[in-house]
Design brief:
The chain is α/β, with parallel strands linked by helices. The protein folds into 2 domains: 273 residues, Aldehyde Dehydrogenase, Chain A, domain 1 (3-Layer(aba) Sandwich), CATH 3.40.605; 180 residues, Aldehyde Dehydrogenase, Chain A, domain 2 (3-Layer(aba) Sandwich). It contains 15 helices and 21 strands.
């Protein structure tokens, strides 16, 4: 008897199989074995989910709910997430290979994202305008943008869902959440908490499936008003093309090749830890991974030695084990891409200081790897590998470091390590990236906007400005004159 757990779709307040009975198996990256199955949506399921979201925009149970009441629902959801963080973390770790230490703690922390937007729900304000016509009273109000499609990848599901779902629900929108077909189990489990929190049926649906049957009909659906997408650039191009069918407002949070600049006056202990966090944290499976380590030539050897020393005792193993520091990669395809990229880098003269190959064990394990580069065109400095590979490149001047850092089509994260406050301000201001960490790396908060430049996407998630992206402004004009309206053939 098959004892594998099975996860259903959550559509219009009901747990359901896909209309066409489609299912997929999900693999445990730590073992390489299938551990669960899940239902996949068809175009008919997409229609049900979007239809429910459209209906609920005009349903009094959601439409007429006060902004304060919406906030209370979000507070309830935040509490449920914290209460169930350990179990959701266990599911995510089993499904994606990410460390339980991170998935459980990150899940608990995203509760604060929902609390942040819960508090903002009744702070969405319009304004009375000081109009230049004395017989007119003119005001604005912010209204929900409508049906939102939120598309999240597998690598930081709870966080990336919170940055979309929190502001969307606070604004009064309805949402169809599309989880990645790679490791979707935690999102389908999370839907249970949405139901338990008490959101009216149809306000949030959670589905997954492949591109042809799910993602394409979802992103081009005529009733979709906004698309919030996190994923790869190639998929994003398809999303943008599909959105031309419905003119949906689109925001994109994509990949990166983030630089970390280490200057000669940096605290080298802190710099080494920052480079390790930016490259080996989450086994390198992070969109803000600082995979271009630009280090002043005078301290390069010292920094590399510190990193090598720190990584010598690193624990690689079962991501469910609290002692593990680096777990498996989510898919075997990632390892193949890394190996090909490393081979190209070595052919161009790069040197592998440690690591460089897959580990001889069950599962998708890649050895943490340090590559020393002599040329900014080295392949590992250009390709987003999504794995534990750090590349170091020397520089001689501040101007050179900035030029190399900005010589990329991406612009998501960046880091600067220096004890010179003036340099910290000067360099961070010139880096073409949506985020800059100084003397730290990979820190997040619901208060701080998150997003990139150029091919790293557009729009911002988290922070005050994000909630405005889920509303539209309506202007209302009221004549206060007792006289009849003037000449209808002349604009006032």
């Amino acid at each position: 008897m098959d004892s594998k757990p099975h996860y259903q779709l959550f559509i219009d307040g009901a747990w359901t199989e896909g209309c066409e009975g489609q299912t997929m198996a999900s693999q445990n990256p730590a073992t390489g074995q299938d551990w669960a199955t899940f239902a996949c949506a068809s175009e008919a399921d997409v229609e049900r989910a979007v239809g429910a979201a459209r209906r609920m925009l005009n349903d009094p149970t959601w439409r007429d709910m006060t902004q304060t009441q919406r906030g209370k629902l979000l507070y309830r959801l935040a509490d449920l997430i914290e209460e169930n963080a350990a179990e959701l973390g266990r599911i995510e770790t089993t499904d994606s290979g990410k460390l339980l230490a991170e998935t459980a703690s990150q899940t608990a922390y995203v509760g604060d994202y929902y609390r942040y937007y819960a508090g903002l729900a009744d702070k969405i304000e319009g304004a009375v305008l000081p109009i230049d016509k004395p017989d007119m009273h003119v005001f604005t109000r912010r209204e929900p943008i409508g049906v939102v499609v939120a598309i999240v990848p597998w690598n930081a599901q709870m966080f990336l869902t919170a940055t979309k779902l929190g502001p969307a629900l606070a604004a009064g929108c309805t949402v169809v959440l599309k989880a990645s077909e790679i490791a979707p189990a935690p999102m389908l489990a999370f839907a249970q908490l949405i139901e338990k929190a008490g959101f009216p049926a149809g306000v949030v649906s959670v589905i997954t499936g492949d591109a042809e049957n799910c993602a394409i009909p979802l992103t081009r659906h005529a009733d979709v008003d906004r698309i919030a997408f996190t994923g790869g650039p190639e998929t994003a191009r398809h999303v943008v093309r599909n959105s031309a069918e419905n003119f949906a407002v689109t925001t994109l949070e994509l990949g990166g090749k983030s630089p970390i600049l280490v200057f000669e006056d940096a605290d080298l202990e802190s710099a080494a830890n920052g480079l390790i966090a930016g490259n080996f944290g989450a086994s390198g499976q992070s969109c803000v991974a600082g995979t271009r380590g630009l280090v002043h030539r005078s301290v390069l050897d010292a920094v590399a030695s510190k990193i090598e020393e720190k990584m010598r005792g690193v624990v690689i193993g079962d991501p469910l084990d609290a002692r593990t520091q680096i777990g498996p990669l989510c898919t075997a395809a990632q390892i193949s891409k890394i190996e090909d990229t490393l081979a190209a880098a070595c052919a161009d003269g790069a040197t592998i200081r440690f690591g460089g190959s897959a580990l001889d064990r069950s599962g998708n394990y890649m050895a943490p790897t340090l590559v020393e580069c002599s040329d900014a065109n080295t392949e590992t400095l250009k390709v987003e590998m999504f794995g534990p590979v750090m590349s170091l490149l020397p520089f001689d001047t501040e101007e050179e470091a900035i030029a190399i850092a900005n010589s990329t089509p991406f612009g998501l994260g960046s880091g600067v390590f220096t004890q010179n406050v003036a340099r910290a301000h000067r360099v961070s201001a010139r880096l073409k990236a949506g985020i800059c960490w100084v003397n730290t790396y990979r820190a997040i908060s619901p208060i701080a906007p998150f997003g990139g430049y150029d091919q790293s996407g557009y729009g911002r998630e988290a922070g005050l400005e994000a909630i405005q992206d889920y509303t539209r402004s309506k202007t209302t004009w009221i004549s206060t004159s007792d006289s009849p309206m003037a000449n209808p053939f002349v604009m006032r």
